[in-house]
């Protein structure tokens, strides 16, 4: 009896392994057939079909494919991809579980994928976690859905409000909201701060960012001691961390039952957030919308589109608000990282404070968004954090068979865009391992003598005025192409305001630098991260 059972189990395991291998091997070997112009033919329209091999790569194993190759790089998969590129070249294929993957490791290839082939490379992976985070359906999410007409519509709807142009009325609104919120923030901090003692500052920064986003998009702010608000800010932060982590379940979905508790936690975070958005924001706004008046904010624009456009559903707008309000976690985590690097390199904080003081000392005022262009070192520090943390670009998926750099890419292939290699390569940066904001600065074109009215706040180094380097082709923190980040102006604007308003009033340091643990390849910090010491500046 026992022997029969053992043989049956063995036969099942063998059957699973063989089926898995056949499946993986088929994906590994499959060629892509694409039409090309017939060079011999005199008729320009005549097409012939050519078979394209997939990019080279290691032979996959049954069940796991090539996942074992990244075992050493669990926390730094893109460093692993960079290592593998030394063996297989700048473009290579892998198999994770049963899924074919392509990794591209230089700027030309990245452009070929995201710009030239954007139309067929704009899907997203079908991970279970992505569905669970968005009410069971990842197409509800702007960042995790496949490309579609609805997505185009959602992006257009969001663009005006969520990508405010410099000196537009939306930009000025952002500035005002950010500055006012930092006044609330400062009062709250004073209540909590014990001089010289470290403070867990992350929740407070996230609440400030959360309020900036909800005021900007929904004209609504919440008290810092509002328990529901505190909870959703915390849950958004948990989700930001979660989304930035890889998970074995993504490529081995049969592990799902073993991670049921984790998945339930994710479902609870996102459903609590949605309930909050529904009850505390949308419900009473729906009653008050006046279609004859211009839109006050993003929520008005969404509610208007709900009434005017049959394709837009209530779900669409709830999830869009969730996506965009949730952007505050990215900004909060980014600011925390900047503060961490300032705690590690005190001279960086001092140089930012020099820029702040040059602007504010005469007029004794808050820094606002109009000051951003005269604070190049501050912006360079934010960019250096973006470079140094090298936040990964969300993976893309080929929605049709296509060809990249002469290699066939089969439909469903997940494409990893290795921007880590761009950010860390000695070909692109001098001494890339060094944290140095100056790399984002260059001599100012305007070398006019420094004005004497105190308004010139440009950092001077050996009497040379510096300005921010713009359009560095290999620096792509927000990606390029069809699915580029919609929130980048909000990141720059609100991130800048939070940072300068903190440094205007406080010196930032740490009593124990060893507590500052920063994971490479990620902007996300754990919800419970390091404390910092905020010391009021003498001049304030
Ligand atoms: C430091 C902060 C941020 C960084 C580094 C960042 C970076 C990125 C990157 C790399 C992508 C993927 C682009 C691609 O797949 O090619 C992306 C997508 C996206 N981001 Fe951001 N982002 C940040 C903050 C924000 C904020 C604050 C918002 C909204 C308020 C936002 C909204 C979005 C959306 C909606 C997408 C999806 C666009 C699409 O797939 O069509 N992001 N972001």
From TrEMBL:
It comes from the Eukaryota. Keywords: Heme, Iron, Membrane, Metal-binding, Monooxygenase, Oxidoreductase, Transmembrane, Transmembrane helix. Heme binds at residue 485. The keyword Membrane applies. GO terms for cellular component: membrane. Its cofactor is heme. It is found in: Membrane. InterPro entries: Cyt_P450, Cyt_P450_CS, Cyt_P450_E_grp-I, Cyt_P450_sf. The chain crosses the membrane at residues 6-28. SUPFAM superfamilies: Cytochrome P450. One of its GO terms (molecular function) is monooxygenase activity. The keyword Metal-binding applies. CDD domains: CYP1_2-like (cd20617). Its main location: membrane. Belongs to the cytochrome P450 family. This is Cytochrome P450 307a1.
